[in-house]
Amino acid sequence: MPGEVRKNWFRGTIDVIRQFILVFEDAKYMNVEHILILFGDHLYRMDYMDFVQRHVDTNVDIRVSCVPMDDKYLYVKIYNI
Hints:
mainly alpha
């Protein structure tokens, strides 16, 4: 099991996704249409049904939700995993 093998905590959300990429690949063959990935501190901060419905209605490939920060935090990086 990823994470367990190393006996270490994951190094962030992207590390979890990287280690569990096979789960996402398997989802393609199990009729899973959408996957919602959340950071731990976001679990209870919004109604995700509205978020997912907007995603479906607009037929986009990816949707990112974030909160406004100070101007010095405008840097965002999307990783290709």
